[in-house]
Amino acid sequence: MIRVYESGERSFANNGLKILHPLKAEVTKVDNGDYYVELTDTLENYEYYQNGMIARIPTPWGGARISFCRSGYKKQ
Questions:
Q1: 5, CA 20 to 30 Å: which among 31, 39, 63, 65?
Q2: 24 DSSP β-pair partners
Q3: Which residues contact residue 37 at a Cβ distance below 8 angstroms, ignoring those fewer than 6 apart?
């Protein structure tokens, strides 16, 4: 479950713009503490995966707040 917020949001006590349930979400934490997420979802949710949007994503290390820095559509 991923909660998506506008880029300028400061309060994360609510559910944000939308709660997403992607088809696949793989979270990686690298040694410097950065998180990377690879997502697969339907085109209906594409508008929520845009540059600058903020996502709250549960991880094995606790919750992560991630800003989308790039998005793309790959035809499969």
A1: 31
A2: 40
A3: 25, 26, 27, 28, 55, 57, 64, 66
Please list the residues that pair with 3 across neighbouring strands: 19, 56
Sequence-distant (≥ 6) Cβ neighbours of residue 36 within 8 angstroms: 27, 28, 29, 30
Please provide the distance, in angstroms rounded to a whole number, between the alpha carbons at the two ends of the chain.
23
What is the per-residue DSSP string for the chain?
A: -EEEE-TT----SS--SEEE--SEEEEEE-TTS-EEEEEE--GGGGGGS-TT-EEEEEETTEEEEEE---------
pLDDT tens, 9-59?
888 889 999 999 999 988 888 888 777 888 888 889 888 888 788 888 887
Tokens 């085109």 label which residue? 43
pTM above 0.85, yes or no: no
